[in-house]
Amino acid sequence: MPIARNEAKRKMMAGGMALGFQVYHLRTAATPLLAAASGHDFLFIDMEHGAFSMQEATQICIASIPTGIAPTVRVCAGALDEGTRLLDNGAMGIVVPHVDTAAQAKRIADAFRYPPAGTRSWGGPPALYGYQAPDVGTAQREINDEIMTTVMIESPDAVRNAAEIAAVPGIDVLLFGSYDLTTALGVPGQMNHPKLIDAYRTVGEACRAHGKIMGMGGIDNKEDAARFVGMGCRYVLTGSDHGYVIAGASDKAKFMREAAAR
């Protein structure tokens, strides 16, 4: 059976933008269908801040594969063993937070790719092939090409080391954790602050120099989002399941109460 392709990664590598649907609360096989229906390209399943079990996360990943929505999962910092288990069970990408150095980035890149590109262990025919993989060498080579490895830039040290991090083979995306970074910069939540804008500029230059993708997370205001997309962000988190529910439900409730008042 041919491998399922990571169309979100392919879109970004071709110079386009991919939109991510953050998942904290949804738990069913409908999740990737909702992401597709709303114009997204990949799922961002959050095992760092969400309450997902491994079973729940992997079932959503497996359900995503036939939809063309690329399932990615954010693990906790240092939880590389969870990342490899997720990749064995349907994930097409892993996001690792709080990556400050090239040495950390190399350890992550090595863990998520098969030899000779890395040290990932073979766990049998994976979900990306419908559990019917070709010979192991071909499968490992093809899977290495489809996996998307994302490291998060969330500290001044990470910004300073962005060029070295971006130079690490096997790292695909440098994703801003904008809330944590603004907090570390002493301007918590100020997404239009010059310190954050300068950080995006620095990381963007590093990504362009090394052929990597810059990612935007935690940006809710449309003006701020437009600024950072204009600065070169191609991996874009648009919002979360709870954010979408609250925004949509609040808008409809406001409309109904105003209609009743009239």
Describe what this molecule looks like in 3D:
The protein has 262 residues and is an alpha/beta fold. It has a single domain, classed as Phosphoenolpyruvate-binding domains (TIM Barrel, Alpha-Beta Barrel), CATH 3.20.20. It has helices at residues 7-13, 31-37, 54-64, 80-88, 102-111, 136-146, 156-160, 162-166, 178-184, 194-210, 222-230, 241-261; strands at residues 18-23, 42-46, 70-74, 93-96, 148-153, 173-176, 213-216, 233-240. An eight-stranded parallel β-barrel has the order 1-2-3-4-5-6-7-8, surrounded by eight helices. Helix 11 links the parallel strand 7 and strand 8. The N and C termini lie far apart (60 Å).
Keywords:
single chain, 262 residues, alpha/beta, TIM Barrel, 12 helices, 45% helix
What string gives the helices and strands in order? HEHEHEHEHHEHHEHHEHEH
Q: Multimeric state of these chains?
A: single chain
Quote the beta fraction: 15-25%
| Morphology | globular
Number of domains: 1
SS class: alpha/beta
Task: Estimate percent helicity.
Answer: 40-55%
Architecture per CATH nomenclature, i.e. the level-2 architecture: Alpha-Beta Barrel
The CATH superfamily is identified as: Phosphoenolpyruvate-binding domains
Radius of gyration from the CA trace?
A: 19 Å
CATH class assignment: Alpha Beta
Compute the average pLDDT: 97
Number of beta strands: 8
Please outline the helices and strands.
Layout: H1 7-13, E1 18-23, H2 31-37, E2 42-46, H3 54-64, E3 70-74, H4 80-88, E4 93-96, H5 102-111, H6 136-146, E5 148-153, H7 156-160, H8 162-166, E6 173-176, H9 178-184, H10 194-210, E7 213-216, H11 222-230, E8 233-240, H12 241-261
